[in-house]
Structure formats: C-alpha cells, structure tokens
Amino acid sequence: MTPTLVRQHLPHAGPSPRSDGGARARDWAEIQERMLVPLYEAVFDRLEVGGGTRLLGLGCGSGLALLMAASRGAAVTGVDSSSPERLALARERLLSGGPGAGAGEPGAGPGGPGAGPGGPGASPGDRARIVAGSPRDTVDQGVPAYDLVTAFEPIGCVAGDSAGLVTLLGEAAPLARRGAAVVLVGWGPPERCATSAVLRVATKLADPLRGAACWRAACRDDLEEVAERAGLRPDGSGRVACPFGYADVDSAVRGLLSTGLFDAAIAATDQAQVDKEVAEALHPHLRRDGTVWMPNVFRYLIARTA
C-alpha cells in the first residue's frame, strides 16, 4: 500500500470557521478521514470483505470505510450519534453517489467510476443504510444478522477513551451472528507514532495541571482488554502503517482539529491559541516543499462474538 499526501485543499477566503460543525465535518471528510485508508484496506483484505458480507460500522462518521466496503460488494450499515454533519456527508456518499463519493477522488470508488456493490453501474446506496443513534436503532426485522462489526475510531491516546466503545460493542454484539468478526483499532506505541507528540498539545492545553496525567501512551493489551470487557473473544491482530500527510501546515491543523481530540483544549483556551500550538508542534514534521509528513502505526484486533 502506497501512502499518499492528502490532496490539496480548496483555497479559503479567510480563516476556517472550525467552530462550525459543517466546516469541521468537511475538514474531516476531505483531509483527515483518508489517513486510515491503509488500515481499512488491510482489514477488508484479511477478512475477505465482499458480496456476502453484512457490515455494521460503529462511529461511521462521514462513511469512507463504509464506501470502500460497499465498493467490494458488501451490504453496509453505518451508525453514529456524535456528528449529524458527518452523517449527512455519509448519506451523500453512500445513498446518492454525490460529491466525495470515493476513497481517492470525488466520484471514483475503488472499483472505478460508478462501481457499486452490484457491479458496474450500480449505486452503493442500493445496499447501504446510515442511521443516527445507537446500534439498536439499526434493528430491522427480517434482515439477516451482521457478520462483521467495525469500530475504526482508534483508542489509546487519552485515559478512559475506551469506555464508550465497550458500551457500543455491548449493544452491537447481539445484532451479529455467532462467531462474527469484530474489529477494534488502537494507536501504536508512541515511538512509532509521530502524531503522538502533537496530540499531547490537546491534553496540555485542556488542563495544564493534569495534562501529563490525561495523556496515556497506548499499551499492547488495550484492545484485548476492551474485547474482554465486551464479552468478545480475541482472534488475531495486525499492525498497519498509516502516515499522516498534509499539503501544508494549515491543512494539517484543520485536519487534526476535525478529529474532536482538541475540543477540550479549545474550550479551555481559545481557537487561536490551539491553532498556534498545534502548528508549532507540527514544525519538526514540516518538509522542504511545505508539506507535513508524520509516520504512524496503528494496531487492529479481530475479535469474535460468542
């Protein structure tokens, strides 16, 4: 898999209004979300996702991973309760085939222009659902159980960031068939994740007195512990290189802030202060051509439902 820089963002007339939910959702979809494409590809290849797959995506956001699975032929359902703006983009991508539909460029999925789960000319929306709410809200009588559940939002950089995931998995597991695959994702060790140093800015600004305590380096057994608490059986794992590449510092700041990991820091200080300190933290990763490049490794765990 060849890592690529994020495509150059469209010029803005002034500072990005990142406090606006719609603007942040677009920053996520256009800049940040694609950083995990190598991870999605590795998982889907390993699990042979295709026409017989029924996938439930937890915290699906703006739906890029779902679109990639749908383009392989899978029937996909995405659920999220955190961002109506991201879900609106997911619906646009999956249900209407609108702008931003592809994993690489707008309107072009991995199977080529117009390729959907039904083959050439079919729309991904033919076998896709986007649901606002919890996994229970996806229940539809007469629809077969899911055979793959994904939770692609990485854990392991902030203390307590797995608590909500255990709850989601507890709701999702009964909707999957016995022995279905459940995929969890976590950050790799800090020494292999250049972005770790930038993320520490968030905890430092959010609570200067407790910043060091709030930051927590990823541990090897984090994902296994979450699986055990959710009643799942670990069944293999892997690591994937996912470098974060940006066209320039402004793109990098906008992309990173779109994750939501800096929200508490913005509330504790202000937007300008967070922008400034994140830009400074990115300086070691700035290349001569003005691009920003941060190597990272993510770990995934495949678990099985009881």
Q: What report would you give on this structure?
A:
The protein has 306 residues and is an alpha/beta fold. The protein is built from eleven helices and 13 strands. Strands 7-2-1-8-9-13-10 form a seven-stranded mixed beta sheet, sandwiched between helices. Strands 3-4 form a two-stranded antiparallel sheet. Helix 1 crosses helix 9, helix 2 packs parallel to helix 3 and helix 6 runs antiparallel to helix 11. The chain is globular and about 55 Å long.
Would you kindly provide a brief summary of this structure?
With 306 residues, the protein is an alpha/beta fold. Helix content is 34%, strand content 23%.
Give structural attributes.
alpha/beta, globular, disordered N terminus, 306 residues, seven-stranded mixed beta sheet, two-stranded antiparallel sheet, 13 strands
The largest beta-sheet arranges its strands as 7-2-1-8-9-13-10
| Low-confidence sequence ranges | 1-18, 98-122
SS class? alpha/beta
Helix content: 25-40%
State Rg: 19 Å
User: Strand fraction band?
Assistant: 15-25%
Q: Oligomerization state of this entry?
A: single chain
Q: Give the helices and strands as they follow along the chain.
A: HHEHEHEEEEEEHEHHHEEHHHEE
